[in-house]
Amino acid sequence: MAISSTPTAAALLLISILFLLTTQGTPLSSDTIVSELSSLRSQSSTGVVHLTDSLLRRILSLPTPRPFHSLIFFDAHQLHSKPELSLPTLKSEFSLVSSSFQSNNPNENPQLFFFDIEFQESQASFALFGVNSLPHIRLIPPTASDLKLDSIQMDASDLSRMAESMAEFIESRTKLSVGPINRPPIISKKQIMFIVAVVLIWTPFFVKKLISGNTIFNDKNIWMAGAIFVYFFSVSGAMFNIIRKMPMFMADRQDPSKLVFFYQGSGMQLGAEGFSIGFLYTIVGLLLAFVTHVLVRVKNRTAQRLVMIFVLFVSFWAVKKVVFLDNWKTGYGIHGYWPSSWQ
Amino acid sequence: MAPPETPQPTTLRHAFGNVLSVFVLLLIGVFAFSIRLFSVIKYESVIHEFDPYFNYRVTQYLTKSGVYDFWNWFDDRTWYPLGRVIGGTVYPGLTLTAGTLWRILNSLNIPLSVETVCVFTAPIFSAFASWATYLLTKEVKGAGAGLTAAALLAMVPSYISRSVAGSYDNEAVAIFALILTFYLYIKTLNTGSLFYATLNAMAYFYMVCSWGGYTFIINLIPMHVLLCIVTGRYSPRLYIAYAPLVVLGTLLAALVPVVGFNAVMTSEHFASFLVFIIIHVVALVYYIKGILTPQMFKVAVTLVVSVGLIVCGAVLAVLIALVASSPTKGWSGRSLSLLDPTYASKYIPIIASVSEHQPPTWPSYFMDINVLAFLVPAGIIACFLPLSDASSFAVLYIVTSVYFSGVMVRLMLVLAPAACIMSGIALSEAFDVFTRSIKFQLLGSTENLQVNNAGESTNVAQNDVVKTEKNEDSQKERSSRKSKKKEKESTERVPLVSRIEQKLLVLPLETSLIAVFLLVLLGAFYVVHCVWAAAEAYSAPSIVLTSRSHDGLHVFDDFREAYSWLSHNTEVDDKVASWWDYGYQTTAMANRTVIVDNNTWNNTHIATVGTAMSSPEKAAWDIFNSLDVKYVLVVFGGLVGYPSDDINKFLWMVRIGGGVFPHIKEPDYLRDGQYRIDSQATPTMLNCLMYKLSYYRFVETDGKGFDRVRHTEIGKKYFKLTHFEEVFTTHHWMVRIYKLKSPRNRIRGKTKKSKSKASSTTSSKRSGTRKKNPWH
What we know:
The complex is a heterodimer. Chain A has helices at 7-23, 30-43, 53-60, 87-104, 123-129, 147-150, 156-160, 162-174, 189-212, 220-235, 238-244, 271-293, 301-330; strands at 48-51, 69-75, 112-118, 136-140, 152-153, 250-251, 259-260. Chain A contains 13 helices and 7 strands. Chain A is 54% helix and 8% strand. In chain A, the strands form 2 sheets. A 5-stranded mixed β-sheet of chain A has the order 1-3-2-4-5, with helices on both faces. In chain A, strands 6-7 form a two-stranded antiparallel ribbon. Helix content of chain B is 66%, strand content 5%. In chain B, helix 10 packs antiparallel against helix 13 (236-253). The longest helix of chain B is centred in the middle third of the chain and has 38 residues, at 412-449. Classes of the chains: A alpha/beta, B mainly alpha. The interface between A and B is large, with 69 and 63 residues.
């Protein structure tokens, strides 16, 4: 491979070797690079090769067309804590694609390498690609010579559906088949076997207990608490928080030191907001039930009176608060329709 | 003296209570009907939105051609040239109901139009629904709770939103059917009567006819049966309530064409069959236990359990094999997204994108069930004290429906009746306690004076309280009344004892008074909110629009203007192309054939129309001409600021079109990822058919071409149409209708070329028409 027949290519090669020798001091050969990458890949459990400035430079110094595609995941450890970027998830999805690709295409000479690159140690490479925002995944085709122009950035829409859409992106741009994504099961097979065995052994005992009527399932207070909890959970809009992955609270846009707990606008809510309103919704009913079913049995008149005052005060405050917050949040002006002669 | 006298006041009181209940129920019915008339008063008696127009058209066909023709109806006025089998693809419940109503009224010589009947079907059925709620709640917690729940349901905003006059949609009758089915199930459970069991199956059949939401029933009732069995509450009544429902109900459900064999083949129904098997095994165990001695029974148990396990295992294996053979495990996407709320957002963007499938935030609950949200927990607890078969069903209903409503805002509609029942129970119990406290403490002094005939005086006082508070007797009092009848000898003592017992269970007078006052205030707030919601939020028909500005009320009746223009000025067989939103309305109001409509069953067809709208004039003309389209209808809001017009929906046309025809690419219509129609817009955007048809001659209105929806001046102001001609634009320019120019105009000097291309027959035809209409 390295020895070329045409004089121009040989000259080019010579120049690039000279160039490389001055910078790196390693002989240039695509074979050696590929074998080095393959070994690096086999060292990594997911098949993602960690890219450094020097390694990238060596890969790029290969004559185009290079024998392989490169897919690079730009990572920054300092941003892992930011939930809106969801870098850790994307990174694990990326390695999932990589391992699936490796297991589906067990090829000696791979056509595609997966890399990740860390911002802190390879800032030069980030600058080379002109990457200034994350998440960012970039494909370098074999023919690419100018990194900024010839490489292809993965769209946000391709990132959105996780590993499957990344695989589609690869398939459409490289004509390489990734194959089905092999997601590791949440619990391993051994664990499943163990759980099934435990459940099977436990079932007859449980059924026997159930028939005799002394499990927690025969205690109606448990059911009552469960029902109330489901109610609280639903009216607080927790399902909205889960599906939309809303944070509990967020920083104020104008003043980042302040925290915003209540979001104005009816299409959205924050986690803490939902739970506090859900609590207000539930507490009034619970207090009412307490008064009608428990407090009436109390013999002490003064205690009854004090508790009643407390209950009425809290209920009134809760209802008032919810009405106020609802008007503030939705901006509706709810009003009655009185006879016009009253005005 | 006393024994002959005491039964008289009780029966009298009973009769009085019944008459009062009937009267109150009548008022509730009138109220439920009248609160839904805001849309008729504020606008007019008109059918709302999009889907109701389809239902209206189907009803018209039914009344004209009869049931059999309706059943076999193949509609060639829509999805041209494919057509659509209507009879087999709709839930016929609503249509048959309104058709029957119309027929009855006509046979009574009350000549109402079909449209009037359709407009008022929903309010009528909401009155029925509140009566059904009364019956259901009465079975659960007595008549007082029933009346309260019925009153609450009559005005719950969530239900109003789907049942105002003119909102002629499936949910209008389905909620009534849902509550009725639950009532009959509970009634059967309480009485063990086969009569009610059969009625229950019929009600379930009506529900299946009406709405796809029947799967909620066929999963909730088995869940309740299972719960009863697990908690050791099995009884023959449970068997009678459940087994006939499954057998008859499934057979009847399979009669509805749109359900058919789905009633036995899809996973939504499997739970009922599994529980059907379990209840039989349990029934057998109980039967054997009854006829055997305890020793023999122990031997039998091992036998039955082992046989039962084998049978269950075999059935389970078959079920699993069946389920596993389908890709979605036999569940439809919507059902799956209920079980796993994150499912839809991950895998089915179409379902996730529809606004009524979004998860609700807390203000949605306050908007839709208002203060009931505060009362429901108290109702849940009241249902547990004491727990009966009926009250456990009510708890199960509220818990499942509140969970489902948390996943999809649309299912708030199913939650609303449950919330009303629970709040009715809570309110009635609370009033019971507070008014009792007030009554006994106010009467305390008078009672001391008249020790001798204390029983009578309190009886009279009780009557007064019933009159004023509308509060029916609680179960405790009722049970005391029953015991009275049984032990006639000690009639004097029992009520006294129970009264003394009750007297101990009171709260301080003044706090009770405040509590009653606050509860009434809460109820008043609920009424105000509901009336406001009915009047302002849920009554707009969206076919007639109004807007208030400083110079008064403006009415925009452009849609009907356009549709009646179509019906008066075009041939009966002309085809009209528009975006699918307006398909139902065009067929129903203009009676013209459309290419696509709101029943979005054929994506390719919709994509074809989307592609035509996104193409330049020539290409669009070719597409429309190949579909025999004569007229193209676009909705344009730029002049009056109507935001849901076709330009705002246009990106969906591009996306859907591009999904099938890849030469339409979304980025071509976006400038740097932004959708704009001003001078920065892309040339593809400025030359596409939708832009041209919307903004043709728009600059003539104000000289600048300022779009009031997008708040910009349009990019291309002066242009001519080559393949289309404007034939009609409504008063406010909201609907614009264009005619496809006939081919000759398009050719212009290239006649030779096209003639040689075209086949001889068409060219001769064309020349023939040209001779007839040389100026055309």
